[in-house]
Design the sequence.
């Protein structure tokens, strides 16, 4: 019953999306004024209905209704509740329903609260949002129905990929999805503005909080995903340049560029066409990433059902939406005049430079991800990995870090290099000292540059606060400072990980000790342990840092029953100056156990930095929204007063 | 500092069509990806099949022997078919060491080898193997569909062959094999 209800409300929501599109398109015509009042309520109702459908699917997973095909294939009655819920989106159909849900809720949210945008552009935006949603409704209802029943209820569910039975899975994909799909708002805004030809500072100010919101979720999602891969895959790596990771990085890069260009548009009325194009590109990258991962064109570590037929469907959607938006851009952007000019040394120019660098990185990631396919077309099979991505992205990333240090100190429109040079002396010295020390310690070139630029930028990122009253500094400025600082911190963490990590593979008998970096590690014993749906061998390892007190670590090798599979559960010990990472391997024949140890100095800075970047975005968002609310309240008050005086 | 630079895409016209053009190229590429014949790597008939049952005695003094049961459970492993008398096997040794360093666990099958020859070979070229079985009659080699030395198999945690690499592992093959190992983890 719940499954049928879920399917029914999903169809109704799709019907409302059609209404939203038609009403929105009609309302833009002079004779369609009657439709103007319809669009917003329809958008809200559509969001409510989809949310109900999603709630229905979650209910089916919680109750483990085995007559539903999706539940039978992906869940199991013995699974802990949190993983039953997470299982809702840990599969293709459920994750597509999540996609549509977020998309419609985002549209509903815009319809409810967006007051800044010109009404015509808003109507066009909501129509565009409905148009994009419709494609995904069609995909869901015609080829990926999550509510399909089995002819005979299954006796028991097939379970869930053990790799995905992790608390990280409960939060990481939904977070990323809010980010991916949240960018659809930027896309629809861009399309709406192209339709009404109304691109200007007001449009930028209206668009900015939405981009910022999606971007925060993306940032946090990528950071969490990186940490999740780091501790579950048991390889000790934090970024693999896997197609799925690249699929999340590309929208982030585009959204980051968009965030900066939209600020230029808001403050200086420049970069109009560029901003609109980035709005289109950012969500396009979300869709391209999803397509590449789902279609089976590129293989990856992630466990999505791969189906070429579905791939063709999503490809058709891509062709319609991205192709259509870019066509509209090509036809209309010429009439969106470019706006104000600026000098070579100015904040705008620095932002443009960083935009170009971000797009450069985006380009090389996209090319690197597609390269195996490209060369295969010419009969050569290759695999592109870190040896390509690391140095080539560094070519763009390092100059970007330098300009990031300078840009926020420059004035809008026109400035002199001589004015900011003395201010930058301190960070420059810090960078030189850090780089010199690293070189002296025998660190390779790329990590040395990363450490030097990270240290320099960390100092420089605080400089916009100098001479300000910290209490009265606007939150968006704090946001920028914290985000830039976060990126510097992350860069230092990455460089340190690559420069100073120590890896040891040891075969130990219980009682034996091995020195790894500053740690003395003793394997105390190996015990069998059991969880709700797994059994495991657990090693107890005593870790003494520089001869101090022993910490106990318990890495496990888990064996799952439903479906059968194994997963290493690494054990981590985090200190202020680094992290110890322990993995239990197999038993050797002589009663010794293979253990893998890493000592990674300052590696947590990577994720701390990522969270700081997200926190900065959050601060900026609060600042922007608070100002908007204040403005709206003020407008309301004035209107109220006028009304009273009028009487 | 009064000269002005124009923001990107100032001239309306052709530049505005560039994104659409690039997207067209992308579409063409992925359409090809969808319709291409699915012939990834060498399609060995043994891929997807479990390794046959075998139990080999140790081939060297300091490593245990090898049996098919040892591939079940744990991580996916590499099975390297080699011999001290084979030239390409010495060439691929540094790539094997690289694979081992990257976390791959490698078992070896020494084909028609002598203990002292093998010890010299391992001393000269390094020993990345966790276990080495001695296959004097090439029974195992033929049983898993290998026709020569060296050859390397990716065997997943269920003992199923996931990938076969024929010939010496060259430096450019290392990421491919690591990728295959990663895929075999699923």
Sequence:
């Amino acid at each position: 019953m719940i499954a049928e209800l879920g399917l029914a409300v999903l169809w109704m929501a799709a019907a409302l999306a059609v209404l939203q599109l038609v009403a929105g398109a009609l309302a833009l015509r002079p004779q369609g004024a009657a439709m103007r009042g319809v669009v917003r309520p329809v958008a809200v109702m559509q969001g409510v209905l989809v949310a109900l459908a999603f709630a229905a699917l979650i209910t089916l997973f919680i109750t483990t209704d085995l007559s539903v095909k999706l539940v039978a294939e992906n869940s199991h009655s013995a699974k802990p509740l949190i993983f039953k819920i997470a299982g809702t989106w840990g599969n293709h159909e459920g994750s597509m329903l999540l996609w549509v849900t977020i998309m419609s809720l985002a549209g509903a949210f815009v319809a409810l609260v967006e007051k800044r945008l010109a009404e015509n552009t808003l109507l066009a935006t909501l129509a565009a949002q409905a148009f994009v949603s419709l494609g995904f409704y069609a995909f869901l209802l015609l080829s990926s129905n999550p509510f399909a029943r089995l002819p005979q209820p299954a006796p028991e569910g097939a379970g869930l990929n053990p790799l995905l039975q992790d608390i990280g899975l409960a939060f990481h994909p939904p977070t990323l999805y809010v980010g991916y799909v949240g960018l659809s708002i930027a896309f629809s805004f861009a399309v709406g503005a192209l339709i009404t030809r109304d691109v200007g500072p007001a449009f930028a100010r209206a668009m900015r909080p939405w981009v910022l919101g999606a971007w925060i979720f993306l940032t946090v999602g990528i950071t969490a995903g990186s940490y999740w891969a780091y501790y579950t895959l048991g390889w000790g790596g934090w970024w693999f340049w896997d197609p799925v990771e690249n699929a999340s990085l590309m929208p982030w890069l585009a959204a980051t560029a968009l965030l900066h260009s939209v600020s230029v548009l808001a403050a200086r009325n420049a970069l109009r066409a560029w901003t609109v194009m980035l709005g289109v590109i950012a969500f396009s990258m979300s869709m391209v990433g999803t397509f590449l991962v789902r279609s089976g064109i590129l293989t990856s570590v992630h466990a999505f059902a791969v189906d070429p037929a579905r791939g063709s469907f999503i490809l058709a959607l891509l062709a319609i939406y991205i192709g259509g938006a870019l066509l509209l851009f090509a036809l209309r952007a010429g009439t969106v005049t470019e706006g104000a000019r600026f000098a070579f040394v100015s904040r705008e120019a620095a932002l443009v430079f960083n935009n170009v660098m971000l797009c450069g990185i985006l380009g090389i990631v996209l090319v690197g991800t597609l390269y195996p396919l490209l060369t295969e077309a010419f009969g050569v099979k290759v695999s592109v990995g870190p040896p390509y991505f690391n140095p080539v992205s560094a070519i763009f990333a390092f100059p970007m870090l330098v300009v990031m240090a300078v840009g926020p100190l420059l004035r809008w429109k026109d400035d002199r290099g001589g004015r900011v040079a003395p201010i930058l002396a301190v960070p420059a010295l810090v960078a030189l000292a850090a780089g010199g020390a690293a070189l002296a310690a025998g660190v390779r070139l790329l990590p040395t540059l990363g450490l030097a630029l990270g240290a320099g930028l960390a100092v420089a990122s605080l400089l916009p606060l100098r001479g300000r009253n910290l209490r009265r500094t606007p939150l968006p400025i704090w946001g920028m400072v914290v985000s830039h600082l976060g990126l510097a911190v992350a860069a230092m963490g990455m460089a340190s990980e690559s420069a100073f990590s120590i890896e040891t593979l040891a075969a130990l008998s219980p009682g034996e000790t091995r020195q790894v970096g500053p740690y003395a590690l003793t394997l105390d014993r190996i015990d069998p342990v059991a969880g709700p749906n797994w059994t495991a061998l657990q090693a107890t390892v005593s870790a003494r840092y520089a001869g101090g007190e022993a910490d106990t670590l318990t890495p496990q090798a888990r064996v799952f029953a439903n479906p059968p599979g194994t997963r290493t559960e690494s054990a981590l010990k985090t200190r202020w100056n680094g992290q110890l990472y322990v993995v239990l391997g197999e038993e050797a024949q002589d009663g010794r156990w293979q253990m893998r140890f890493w000592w990674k100095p300052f590696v947590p800075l990577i994720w701390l930095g990522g969270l700081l970047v997200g926190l900065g975005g959050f601060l900026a968002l609060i600042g922007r929204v608070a100002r908007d609310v204040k403005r709206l309240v003020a407008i309301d008050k004035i209107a109220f007063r006028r009304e009273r005086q009028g009487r | 500092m009064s000269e002005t630079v124009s923001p990107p895409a100032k001239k309306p016209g052709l530049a505005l069509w560039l994104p659409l053009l690039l997207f067209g190229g992308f579409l063409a590429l992925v359409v090809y990806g969808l319709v291409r014949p699915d012939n990834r790597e060498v399609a060995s008939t043994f891929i997807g099949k479990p390794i046959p049952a075998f139990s080999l005695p140790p081939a060297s003094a300091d490593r245990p022997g090898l049996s098919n049961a040892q591939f079940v459970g744990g991580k996916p492993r590499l099975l390297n078919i080699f011999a001290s008398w084979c030239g390409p096997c010495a060439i691929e040794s540094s790539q094997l060491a690289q694979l081992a360093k990257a976390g791959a666990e490698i078992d070896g099958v020494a084909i028609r080898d002598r203990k002292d020859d093998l010890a010299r070979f391992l001393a000269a070229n390094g020993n990345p193997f966790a276990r080495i079985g001695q296959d004097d009659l090439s029974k195992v080699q033929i049983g898993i569909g290998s026709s020569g030395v060296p050859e390397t198999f990716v065997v997943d945690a269920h003992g199923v062959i996931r990938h076969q690499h024929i010939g010496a592992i060259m430096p450019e093959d290392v990421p491919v094999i690591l990728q295959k190992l990663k895929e075999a983890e699923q």
Observations:
- Chain B has six helices and eight strands.
